[in-house]
Amino acid sequence: MLDAAPAQQAANWLRSLSVALDAGEPDTAAALFLEQCYWRDLLSFTWNIKTMEGRTAVREMLDAALKQTQPGTWRLKGEATNADGVVEAHFTFETQVAHGKGIVRLREGRCHTLFTMMTDLKGHEEKKGRTRALGVRHKADPSRETWSEARAREQAALGHTEDPYCLIIGGGQGGIALGARLKQLGVPTLIVEKNARAGDSWRNRYRTLVLHDPVWYDHLPYIPFPEHWPVFTPKDKMGDWLEMYAKVMELNYWTSTICIGASYDEAEKLWTVELERAGQRIVVKPRQLAFATGAYGPPRRIELAGADRFKGQVLHSSEYAGGTPFKGRKCAVIGAASSGHDVCVDLWESGADVTMIQRSPTTVVKSDTMMEMAFEIYSEEALDRGMTTEAADMLVASTPFALLPESQKALWDEIRRRDAAFYEKLSATGFAVDFGEDETGLMMKAYRTGSGYYIDVGASDLIIDGEIGIRSGKQIKTLSENGILFEDGEELPADAIVMCTGYHSMHETVAQIVSREVADSVGPCWGLGSGVKDDPGPWQGELRNMWKPTAQEALWFHGGNLALSRFYSKIVALQIKARMEGIDTPVYRDQA
Fold first, then answer.
1. In terms of CB atoms within 10 Å, which end of the chain has fewer, N or C?
2. Closest Cα to residue 282, out of 155, 152, 158?
3. Which Gene3D superfamilies match (predicted)?
4. How far is residue 197 from each of residues 164, 234, 242, 248, measured CA to CA in Å?
5. Is residue 125 packed enough to be buried (19+ CB in 10 Å), middle (13-18) or exposed (0-12)?
6. Mapping DSSP to helix (H, G, I), strand (E, B) and coil, where does residue 373 land?
7. Confidence band of 308 (pLDDT split at 50, 70, 90)
8. Percent helix, strand and coil across the chain, each rounded to 5?
9. Half-sphere exposure (CA, 13 Å, Cβ side) for 434?
């Protein structure tokens, strides 16, 4: 078998797996895997986002889920490859209730990693292509209802005379992407947003904000950015795109709406949610409640001793709208991750005297380097090779989190060698550069803690040139009337202090809206449990609570950057659609 072509090796393995599963033999199926193996499943077998690590975990999952899943019709798709002794092949398959696709990687004839993903529910596929709606009835009819009339009727009813099946709290990129997915699946959905317009979550940020990720990585579902779209999207342009998108996708979207409170009736399987819209109290009763309030929750503010006697202004980055009011003033920015750098640049461009206070080391990478080395599969060159955004998303999703550190360390070792002179100059200013506790770089920091990194789009040169001052490794003792007093006795004059200190976990928003008890039962969102600082365990092999069933029935979290929102919005939508249609969804979790 090992002498066969890659396609034949993959076909033989897939056939052996199919035979074992058809026979209901988990032990036989598990024997096709290496002892140290990984099976990452998105819904198709587990109705969960779950990675089985090791042959024993694979067998235990199959013991529990195989009879219910009834997988079959395994078919290779495209060309298999062999690189450095690893055979990689894509395939499609079916279960009792769904269609799916996946990627297998073989070493010495056995499976090292397997990725399976639900793509559609049988009988509930999205209406598209040949099955798209006709859009008109070609006959004379005095009772004809036009598209605009039907749309107005839907908008007038939902949330008033008819309850949505799903209520999404938060109408930024995450809420809009999830709303679009649910719309295409025929799930009555209402999105509520506190701002006055869709896209204001971007527009209301400081004036110079631009996405640090490239356009090929940032598409929304169904409507990609046009080919003339800039590589890095300005925040107001992004806001306008989201507003357009919500309208074109016909989302039921309430602006200027605040969620006052929510409670779940375990007997009725129903949420009661109180909203305030334009001064009016409205109660809706959805079956499913999704929080899409960003990747994180409320702003994280730090306690500053002496704040009561400080004569200047103290604000969090979430409140910072621009540097114009600070022209000619001395400003201190606490925090040295992405927001801290961006705010420093904006203040400097506005004519302020800026000093960054760095409390812990930061992983920094030059934007050009990041584009070339870390976004290689999301690029114009990748498209020329036939690597679509969907295909790139599949490759990223197919890599188990447990295997990321090794590959990321190799990547960042190369980045450090390539840009050694840049890091030497930056460090010479006193700025503390690191690459994570295990030197695995930016991506692992993003997954583990969501903090401590910056893609350099201009701030680093200002730091190197002394235009942005640095105080690193110095503890703040107290605020004085006119500035910040450090433990070593230095006093830094400041007229304003901006805290770029991040955000709490999204479950803290649940505490504010539902209850502290429910929030604590669900636990924190995000993070892997890697054991590094601020990423508490236990290790789960997946991001905590994101895009999957939580400890609170019918409560979901959806968030992340544009790429994660695009990809996982489909996974969340399929789970909600299945529940609406009464499809059995037995969630597989760890045996413990």
1. C
2. 158
3. 3.10.450.50, FAD/NAD(P)-binding domain
4. 21, 17, 10, 15
5. middle
6. helix
7. very high
8. 35, 25, 40
9. 17
Instruction: Tell me the residue ranges of DSSP E strands in 488-532.
Output: 491-493, 496-499
- Tell me: pLDDT of 209 over 50: yes
Could you tell me which residues come within 8 angstroms of residue 54 by beta carbon, excluding any fewer than 6 positions away?
35, 36, 37
Torsion of CA 20, 25, 28, 34, to 10 degrees: 90
Average pLDDT, the chain: 95
Sequence-ordered list of residues with C-beta below 8 angstroms from that of 118, at least 6 positions apart, any chain: 42, 43, 44, 95, 98, 99, 100, 571, 574
Cβ-based neighbours of 193, under 8 Å, separated by 6 or more: 170, 171, 172, 175, 200, 201, 253, 254, 255, 256, 257
State the residue for tokens 């080395």. Answer: 373
**Model's pTM, two decimal places?**
0.95
pLDDT for residue 187 is more than 90: yes
What's the rounded Cα separation, in Å, for the pair 12 and 197?
Answer: 55
**Residue recorded with tokens 């940032």:** 218
- Picking from 411, 401, 410, the residue whose alpha carbon sits closest to that of residue 374 is 411
DSSP E strands in 303-411: the ranges are 313-316, 330-334, 353-358, 363-366
- The number of beta carbons lying within 10 Å of the beta carbon of residue 387 is 17
Cβ atoms within 10 A of the Cβ of 91, count? 22
The whole-number pLDDT of residue 140 equals 86
pLDDT tens for each residue of 28-72: 999 999 999 999 999 999 999 999 999 999 999 999 999 999 999
Q: What is the pLDDT of residues 500-552, one digit of tens each?
A: 998 888 899 999 999 999 999 999 999 999 999 889 889 989 999 999 999 99
* CA–CA gap between residue 230 and residue 47 (Å, rounded): 38
544-547: Cβ within 8 A, 24+ apart: 545/507, 546/49, 547/49, 547/571, 547/572
435 CB neighbour count, 10 Å cutoff:
24
Dist. CA 110–CA 1, nearest whole Å = 11
89's enclosing H/E stretch is: strand 86-94
DSSP letter string, 290-306: EE-S-SS-SB-----TT
> In this model, does residue 257 exceed pLDDT 90?
yes
Residue at 197: amino acid letter: R
Name the token pair of 168: 């999404």
Residue given tokens 């559609």 in the structure block: 120
Helix, strand, or coil here: 405? helix
- Give the whole-angstrom CA distance, residue 540 versus residue 46: 15
Tokens 């295990």, located at residue: 438
Question: Distance between CA 294 and CA 292 in Å, rounded?
Answer: 6
